[in-house]
Design a protein that fits this description.
By secondary structure, the chain is mainly alpha-helical. It has 16 helices and no strands.
């Protein structure tokens, strides 16, 4: 076995090979490896989100300032994805993702030890910037290495894996914070989990067979990115990323603050269990890609937005059981929309696929960073009513843009 053929290496380009097919051992191994990459990325990216009230109290900072620890990471990720896509074109997809996981995990570990809040924010920015190397490259790697007939399914299953990765980080940090009385222990445990997942990714990931390194310059990358931004269909997809993710993260950022205050007064362990709603996203993301083949992606996107609005309306009820149902419905809608929009970003790109997926991730995490931060000021000013109305408007904008910017039958293919 040559170095280029080892797991984690960049294999030789095979012009005759058509990609891994669903149901084969290699396809399963690829998805297992990408699931581990999703855990290594999304577990640590959102680990502080489940314990934001504890961080706010422990550091004596208001909710909007505590939420900067989430927004700084997603902002760093958004600002780094184009650079990572350039590196991935030159250096290889797998090598780039491995480097990204290492950088992010080291920054995340350092974050749990520092006392200065500005330094904590800076380290979270670096951590997020590192994670951009996975988030910005993973879909490009999957679409290159899977057969055309299995591409949509592979992307949907990867999105399902990212939802489980984000869920694992939140479920671990919340109960451990409650048990030990230290949010640093809770977040640190997630960093340890991410390190283990990163090692498993390195061992399991199949070597690329359809990728040829390209000596592209940053100028060329910028030109490809600008070409995508001039494409009306791609702009529509980017609006979906910004709005849907921004609303989704804002809801989860501040719902914990609401539920740990009267009349609910729930503990951090109980509020972290609300993130089990992410399991609905694991189901809906793969279901959405199958439904798009039959009904068209625009129809599924509009349905996803409708589910988000319905779930959001249920969170207005002052009853924990109803709020949980609302979160399940909202989460299912979000991940369905994300699965469709992210697949479109790769499929609609005739060239510069890595830059297309990187731009999608830029707008996706920019929405998380900007809207998630703004939501804190709305929460302080008007409570949950202000936050939920703001998010409803953002989702409605995404639906309007999808309705006007995509053809009814767009991409009705496997």
């Amino acid at each position: 076995m040559s170095p280029g053929d080892r797991p984690g290496g960049e294999g030789r380009h095979d012009a005759t090979w058509q990609g891994h097919r669903r149901g084969t051992p290699a396809f399963t191994r690829l998805l297992t490896a990408m699931f581990c990459a999703g855990v290594a990325t999304f577990a640590q990216l959102y680990a502080p989100q489940a314990v934001l009230p504890a961080i706010s109290a422990g550091l004596s900072v208001p909710p909007a300032q505590a939420a900067l620890l989430v927004s700084a990471a997603t902002g760093g990720l958004a600002m780094s994805v184009l650079w990572w896509s350039w590196l991935a074109d030159r250096w290889g997809r797998v090598r780039t993702m491995l480097l990204a996981i290492i950088v992010a995990t080291l920054a995340g570990a350092a974050f749990t030890f520092v006392a200065s809040f500005p330094v904590m924010v800076a380290l979270r920015f670096v951590e997020g910037a590192g994670l951009g190397g996975v988030a910005g490259v993973a879909v490009a790697y999957i679409t290159e290495e899977t057969h055309a007939a299995s591409m949509a399914a592979a992307t949907g299953l990867y999105i399902s894996g990212t939802s489980l990765g984000g869920l694992s980080g939140r479920l671990l940090s919340g109960p451990l914070t409650d048990l030990t009385g230290s949010w640093r222990v809770g977040v640190g445990s997630v960093i340890a989990l991410s390190a283990v997942a990163g090692v498993l990714f390195a061992v399991l990931v199949p070597p690329p067979r359809r990728f040829t390194p390209r000596r592209t310059s940053l100028v060329q990358v910028s030109r490809l990115a600008l070409a995508h931004l001039r494409n009306p269909g791609m702009r529509t997809v980017f609006v979906q990323a910004f709005c849907l993710m921004g609303a989704f993260v804002t809801i989860y950022n501040y719902l914990g603050f609401r539920l740990e205050r009267p009349p609910f007064a729930l503990s951090p362990t109980v509020t972290s269990l609300l993130f089990l709603s992410y399991l609905a996203g694991t189901w809906s993301s793969s279901r959405a890609t199958r439904s798009a083949v039959r009904f068209g992606r625009r129809t599924v996107l509009l349905g996803a937005g409708t589910l988000m609005l319905t779930g959001l309306a249920l969170t207005w009820v002052v009853d924990v059981a109803v709020i949980i149902v609302g979160l399940v419905v909202l989460t299912a809608g979000f991940f369905a929309g994300h699965a469709i929009a992210s697949a479109l970003a790769g499929i609609m790109a005739e060239e510069g696929r890595a830059q297309a997926t990187a731009l999608y991730n830029f707008f996706y995490y920019a929405g998380s960073s900007v809207l998630g931060w703004v939501g804190g000021y709305l929460f302080s000013a008007g409570g949950w009513t202000a936050v939920s109305m703001f998010c409803a408007i953002v989702v409605a904008v995404a639906m309007l843009v999808a309705w006007s910017g995509l053809r009814p039958s767009v991409a009705r293919t496997p």
